[in-house]
Each structure stands twice: as C-alpha cells, then as structure tokens.
Amino acid sequence: MNSKTINITSVEKAGPCQLHLKFDDGTEQIVDFKEFLSQSRHPDIRAYLEEGKFDTYHLEYGELVWGDYDLCFPIIDLYRNQILHPASMEVAA
Predict the structure, then answer these.
(1) Three-class SS of residue 15?
(2) Which pTM was predicted?
(3) What per-residue confidence (pLDDT) applies to 92?
(4) Which of 4, 10, 34, 91 could cross-link 17 (Cys pair, CB 3.0–4.6 Å)?
C-alpha cells in the first residue's frame, strides 16, 4: 500500500469562494467552497461566505487553513475536489 503524503504547495484565489490549489504531485484543482459554506448551519462557518473573511486562508505545513484551524478540510477531499459528501447534502425533513 502506498502511503505517500499529499501536500498543497500553492493556493491562489480563482473567484468568489474559489481557490486554485496545486499539490506536490503536480495535480491541480479549482475548488468551489460556496455550496459547502452556504449549506452549513453553523454561523461561524457561514461567516466565511464574506469575501474578506474567506480571503484569510493560508497554507500551514501543506494544509489549507483559515485562522487557527477554525476552518480546514481533509487534504484528500481537496485533492479529489469532493468537499461535499452525500450525508452533508441530505435535506432535513
């Protein structure tokens, strides 16, 4: 089994709530965070819909984070560009 660690090597803004990520294996993704942020019920997470707050992202040890890990995502989800999971897309009845 290959257990190579994947790291983000650079991040640039690609649009409102969108980031262009480059990974150390050459893979690139443009990840749109808007739907994830919009669907969140937590006001501290929804606050990142504000462009000024969203733009406070930074790379720390190859990971994309906001604040002191106030908002972060598993690297594999960013790598696969799948930050929304089926369970998070269910509508409460």
Answers:
(1) strand
(2) 0.85
(3) 45
(4) 34
